[in-house]
Design a protein that fits this description.
62% helix
Amino acid sequence: MSRIDDLMPRSDDRWATATRRAQGTADQGLGGALKTYYTLYFPAGVIILVTAGTVGGMLAFGGGPAGWPSFLVFGFFLSVLGAAIGGFIYNAKKIAPAAETGRIDVLLSLEDEERKRHPAPGSREDTA
């Protein structure tokens, strides 16, 4: 008698398929690029743009230095806009070239339990 499980590929076959699909994927400094963005460029950009937007709002609408909290909305708007534009540019120039993703998702052939619990054969977790 045949069951549906007999028709499904075995775990070893799924891992072999995932290993074959992983050929051509490479990390070329993705972690460093993300760390630089979130620890240097993003915080500095937000601080500079909030300050510039607040001062620009005060100058544009004739507010005095005592009323700076009411002009913070302009600073936050400018920082959101700057972070979005800067993030897209940084992604295109630094993040995307830092990883070669290949053509297909490597984990696509694995089941959910295999993605979470079992390390790939030959990986550091597998040898520990």
